[in-house]
Structure formats: C-alpha cells, structure tokens
Amino acid sequence: MSRTRAGATRRNPRSVLALDVSRLGRRPGSMTTVTETVASPSRIGLDLVAIDKDAPVELDLRLESVSEGVLVTGTVSAPTVGVCSRCLTPITGTVSIDLTELFAYPDSATEETTEEDEVGRVVDDTVDLEQPIVDAVGLELPLSPVCSPDCPGLCQHCGVALADAEPGHSHEVIDPRWAKLADLEVADTTRAQDD
C-alpha cells in the first residue's frame, strides 16, 4: 500500500506526513521523489466535508534542495466524506490539491527574515507536510457542499427531504397574526349550524 522512491523515509513516528530530507543535504539541485499512500493522521477539512481520520492520502511529491531550504511540489489527493448542506444526506467525493511549499534551512536568510507561520522549517532533517496540507485542503473544499446542484433541501415545516417527498408536498400555514380570526370563523359556523 505504501511506497517511497528515491530514499525519502519517515523520521518522525508521530506524524505520517513528516519526511526525512537528510539525503538531499544542502546541495542545491539535489532532488528526490515520494510516491506513496499514507493514512490521514486526523480529520482534515471543514465542518460539513473533510478527509476522515485514517483515510488514504495519496502523495505524489518532489522534494528539491534549493539555496534557502527544501522546496516540496506535487499533488496530494484523498477521498472526502460529509453531509449535504441543504438536505443533510451523506455525500462522498475526492479532493486533490497542488502543493508548493518551501521549508527553510536552519540559519538560512529565509529563516531569519520570515515568521514561522509564513514559511515552514526544516527541523532535524525533516519537513512536516501536515499543516500545509490542512491549509490547502481547507481552501479547496466547498463551504456548503451539496449532494447535487439542484438539491431542493428540507421542508421548513416538517424537515422531510424535499427530493424524497411526494409531489406537491406542502403544509397549510396560517399567519399567527390571523389565527384568532380563523377561530372566530369556526365559532360562527358552529353557531349558524345550531340555529
């Protein structure tokens, strides 16, 4: 299931998305590729749609040494699960992101002139891709996912999914301001029948 090419190996057992870059050294131009599938370390995404914890995450990456650090480029894709924002039925899909991330070497000019949240860092010859993937997936997923573009949603009165409701599904709704008049009309009709 899992495959790594050209020598990139796991270094941090706490994060499956941390990759060892020690074989790259600090030689600009040296490169390695990573093509493997790993289990998602946590739920990644938004409230209504996300990559589930332990879902297969496919990495197809190139790690390249540049003068200021390690440049990681490539694609990350995974299945998603969630609920339709209109009718609340379960939905599934996939998300694919293009990743381009620079991780600064310790003591490099980039490390000294940027904040830690601006540019990742190479720590103990390791780059951790988890936060860049979390950020990119969050931007790629829809805030309001739908099961279909024309999903009619739920009935506002009884909560039934309108796609599954009988044709002409409706409720007689009386404006609360006029409800007393309806009671008066019923009372007048009853009195008329008694006479």
The parts where pLDDT drops under 50 for at least 5 residues are 1-12
Total count of helical runs of at least 4 residues? 3
| Terminus-to-terminus distance | 86 Å
Please trace the helix and strand order, writing H or E for each element: EEEEEEEHEEHH
- Binned, the helix content reads 10-25%
Mean pLDDT: 83
Structural class: alpha+beta
How many strand segments? 9
Overall shape: it is: elongated
Main beta sheet strand tally, sense and closure: 7 strands, mixed
- What is the gyration radius calculated from CA atoms? 28 Å
Protein name: DUF177 domain-containing protein
Pfam family, one: YceD
InterPro entries: YceD
Organism: [Mycobacterium] burgundiense
Task: Characterise the protein shown here.
There is one protein chain. With 195 residues, this protein is α+β, with helices and mostly antiparallel strands. Helices cover 16% and strands 32% of the residues. The strands form two sheets. Strands 2, 3, 4, 5, 6, 7 and 8 form a seven-stranded mixed β-sheet that branches. Mean pLDDT is 83; it is low at 1-12.
Question: What is the compact description of this entry?
Answer:
With 195 residues, this protein is of the alpha+beta class. The protein is built from three helices and nine strands; from the N terminus they run E-E-E-E-E-E-E-H-E-E-H-H. It starts with 17 loop residues before the first strand and ends with a helix.
